[in-house]
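Appendix B: complex inputs.
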Amino acid sequence: MSTFTQEMLDSMKLVEATRAERLHKELPRFSAEEKDKLLKEFHPDYSAKGFTVLSTGPSKGSKVPNELAVLLEGKSRLEGVKVDLGRIDYETDVLVIGGGGAGAAAAIEAHNGGAGVLVVTKLRMGEANTMMAEGGIQAADKANDSPVTHYLDAMGGGHYKNIPDLLEELVENGPLAIEWLSRLGVLFDKEADGTMVTTHGGGTSRKRMHACKDVTGAEIMRVLRDEVQNLGIPVLDYAPAIELIKDTEGKAAGAVLLDLDSNELLVVRARTVILATGGAGRLHYQGFPTSNHYGATADGLVLAYRAGARLIYADAIQYHPTGVAFPAQIYGALVTEKVRSVGAQLVNSKGVAFMNPLETRDVAAASIIRECTARGNGVKALDGVALWLDTPMIDMLHGAGTIEKRIPGMLRMYQKFGIDLRKEPILVYPTLHYQNGGILINKDAETEIPDLFVAGEAVGGIHGTNRLMGNSLLDIIVFGRIAGEKAAARAKTVTHGALSLDHVAAFATEREAAGIHTETLSPKLLPTYTHGRKTR
Ligand code: MEZ
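Resulting structure:
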């Protein structure tokens, strides 16, 4: 059970006192100028201390988070190790690295395209950020909406930095993605007449968020994992890729895996490779807690970078505005944006609703940080400060039972710790949620390395420098399917030279020449927790 402090209880009274007056009040949006200023002054992406400029590799000269730079310019786990590339442990047409939503979608479509597929995953199939996604998946499939409108919303949210071809592919395929998932068995929320229930997310001009209550990612992953199993696609658990294998012509041709049970190296030869290794939350950039799953350590970025693929917007990180700030047992966990979509306001320690709750995520996070720091309007919570998310408003606005029906996962999560969000507001602060940037691909999901495809959170460019809610569950499906289809088709015609790991030695030579002498092994694979919440 958690106990609110006296300061929290006093501040909660102020929130309650202003609730009736705030209930039907439309809160103004920030102007473009206000947003720019807010981001520059308070968003962690603008912190000079949080970033390093890369001195080596294909994106040399680019700025990336310090914790990621150490890994990108780190030491391969194969440096000084003799790997016998003549001893092939597994051979397949398409190798899918990663067992989350993007990897599963890619594996299904590669299989449907007639290819032999092998999925390898660091933990177990489904232990991924997809599973943790709560609020919904965007798709413009209502009569008042269109992919063009979806495109404009995402471009605006992404600061017009989104790669146009990739974004076009995303939004055009949105309605198809919902149909595909529905056919496979995903149980989206529907009205009595069968129409999909859709809501707004931050930065959307139409209600296009399709959801399965507030456990949308878990429901999607349940269905995709079943489908992979039903199709008989082999999955190798606890076998992370630690290096890509190329051929002597520079094409992707497999991977070296580390069997986490036996500690043995395994060699996989493949005709094409799909990286779907997900995000980086467990690197805890700038000391932030995270909403991410245990294995989110940017492995795919390291592998692809060392093999010669460029990164894009790797300095653009998403801090979800509403991470749990109290109680300690769920510190950093996600409080879905849907809580705000269905009516909860962000309220400061004095009971003042200081912003429109559906600003885009980067702006909302910066505004919360400003309120808590520069303006001194936060509530002390654990080791930091936090603000209220006024959840009782939801049932007051839409009728008793709305919270139970629309966000039952949130209700249960807090009930476990003695907090009833139907009756009392909750304390939130930004949590590290998503990497907006990643590996550069084209609209066929292929990187600059021939026969290397990428899908899911490891990709950069689709969302510009700030993703809108629900566009990630969409991109794992859209680009997962594209990667699977294209990789399977390529596997039918590709020919390879001899297998090679020369790029690993070449990267080490370049790194040493740049004056970086490091013993940090990468990819990191698993976070190292020392005390509390941080990782080294
Ligand atoms: O797209 C997301 O990140 C998402 C749906 C998160 C959430 O707030 O639920």
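Residues 246 and 252 are 4 Å apart (CA to CA).
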